[in-house]
Write a structure and sequence with these properties.
Length: about 525
């Protein structure tokens, strides 16, 4: 028997934007709305019209979006005391927005009514009923967000239910129970939701914050207790500790509990959507995130990889492709022969005489690890090691030497210049370039020297640069590990270098990154443009 349909309501554009360090532009919000629509999210809460000019413009522009599934929701609050329904500016802005669905937040805790609103409990009930009824008369579908509901229910369940009753009498289409402070644990969440479902005729939804690290768990048990809608955000964005993370919630509902969701049809886009939103928010993607993190299906131990090669179910709870992710085998000091063979197959590399060659590669990897190399985030360097071992690789250029000069001018400005001499097929190129720092100067110089031979180098972008001191006790003479991430078009890769000299470590990683790109173009049959 098919289980009930669960409505997914996304509030990334409002609640998610309250994360520290995140500020979505108008174009950001419109793009995120399109991404969520592709994922077949049912409702997208666009913001609070009347609270700021950007949200007002968003609703005008959102009306022009050609959304195929999602409905845009405007957020607001109950009428303010002392105002009429027609004169309340925030309600008027809600009505004037082009949204046809409104979510109204209302206090459902007697403590909050007295302390935050400073009005009587009866007056609060009247505001809830009147606001919902007013919007229903205007033709809106209305969600009532019962703020602080779980805390309020534990303190005074009778009044919390009265607030829901006022919303029901006003014609609310959904009663949403909010754990605003995020302090409710799973047992109480299930008990309270079940009590509300039994007491109310109107459909029940939930909205959990993650301050106790159980927002997803609370949402799941709420659905099991009878809730038909869950509000949350992509990647769990939100103020303080965030909201229920829809990237975990949806696959759990669909793949583990068998519920129906519109997003089930587009689950293969989940990882991509998650990453796009991290990029738009200008924050690092959580690579440890369940389902959508780059490490969600990463395997490091040799025993695990050996078992995976026989049956992936031995160490994976789902097929990663179901959520648009991929399996990743990590090369490290814990690696075994199976890791090397698995990674080679993944890269499309055949290992002749696999037993001896694989042991040689593994010995090389472990020797480098002893020196401080790490390959978890440097698959580009790792692939070069394999292709050197299989004789598939040849250097694309020969370095004759480089010099980096750092000068502090009278104007207190730091100036860096790198001079480099390289040779490509007997042709020597000697050039120089400046940079804000020595590594940037070196990067600019090597690209400048090679671009006439390999024009595609100009398309490489350096996306991340990390330095890690390996033996702090050695002070300024300590060895460092440099990890560099680069990309060209849709391809990303990481490389690594280790040395007591930060310039040398950076050079190793930079050169590996350039040669990796050129090698991949050669292997893929692209014209790398060498003259």
């Amino acid at each position: 028997m098919n289980k009930k349909q669960i409505i997914i309501y996304d509030t990334t554009l409002r609640d998610g934007s309250q994360s520290v360090g995140i500020s979505f532009s108008l174009q950001d919000k419109l793009r995120i709305a399109r991404e969520l629509d592709r994922l077949k999210i049912d409702y997208i809460e666009g913001g609070w019209p009347g609270s700021n000019p950007k949200d007002e413009i968003f609703f005008k522009e959102a009306a022009k979006l050609s959304l195929t599934h999602a409905k845009i929701v405007a957020f607001g609050s109950t009428k303010r005391a002392g105002k009429t329904y027609d004169s309340d500016e925030l309600l008027k802005a809600l009505v004037d927005s082009r949204a046809r669905i409104a979510t109204i937040v209302a206090k459902s805790s007697d403590f909050q009514v007295r302390e935050a609103l400073n009005i009587s409990l009866k007056e609060n009930l009247e505001l809830v009923y009147g606001t919902v009824a007013f919007l229903k008369d205007k033709g809106f579908e209305v969600f009532l967000d019962a703020e602080h509901f779980f805390d309020g229910f534990k303190e005074n369940s009778g009044y919390a239910l009265e607030v829901l009753g006022a919303g029901e009498r006003g014609g609310a289409d959904m009663l949403v129970l909010c754990d605003t402070n995020g302090g409710t644990l799973v047992r109480d969440a299930e008990r309270i939701v079940r009590a509300v479902v039994d007491a109310c005729k109107t459909r029940v939804g939930v909205h959990f914050h993650n301050d106790s690290a159980v927002a997803v768990a609370n949402s799941l048990v709420s659905v099991e207790a009878g809730a038909v809608s869950v509000q949350g955000t992509m990647n769990g964005l939100g103020e303080r500790c965030g909201n229920c993370d829809l990237t975990s919630l949806v696959p759990n509902l669909v793949l583990k509990l068998g519920y129906a969701c519109s997003s089930a049809e587009s689950l293969v886009h989940l990882t991509e959507t998650s990453r796009v939103i991290s990029e738009i928010a200008n924050i690092g993607h959580n690579e440890q995130a369940p389902y959508v993190g780059d490490n969600a299906f990463a395997h490091k131990g040799g025993i695990h990889v050996s078992a995976l090669s026989k049956n992936t179910r031995t160490y994976e709870h789902i097929d990663p492709s179901l959520v648009g992710n991929r399996r990743k085998v990590i090369i490290s000091e814990l690696s075994g022969k199976s890791n090397i063979e698995f990674k080679a197959r993944e890269m499309g590399i055949k290992l002749p005489s696999a037993i001896h060659l694989t042991k040689d590669i593994l010995r090389r990897i472990k020797c480098l690890e002893d020196k401080g190399y790490q390959f978890e985030a440097a698959e580009g360097t790792f692939e070069l090691i394999i292709r050197r071992a299989t004789k598939e690789y040849r250097p694309f250029f020969v370095l004759h030497g480089f010099r980096v000069i750092t000068e502090k001018t009278e104007g207190n400005e730091m100036v860096c210049e790198a001079t480099i001499k390289v040779e490509v097929d007997g042709v020597v190129e000697h050039t120089a370039a400046n940079g804000k720092g020595p590594v940037e100067a070196l990067d600019n110089a090597v690209r400048k020297a090679l671009v006439k031979f390999y024009p595609d180098i100009s398309e490489i972008q350096l996306t991340d640069y990390k330095v890690r001191v390996l033996n702090e006790k050695a002070g300024t003479g300590a060895a460092v590990r440099v990890l560099i991430d680069q990309k060209r078009k849709s391809r990303h890769w990481g490389t690594v270098g280790v040395s007591e000299n930060i310039i040398e470590a950076s050079w190793q990683a930079l050169v590996d990154g350039i040669e990796y790109m050129l090698l991949k173009d050669l292997v893929d049959g692209e014209d790398i443009g060498k003259e």
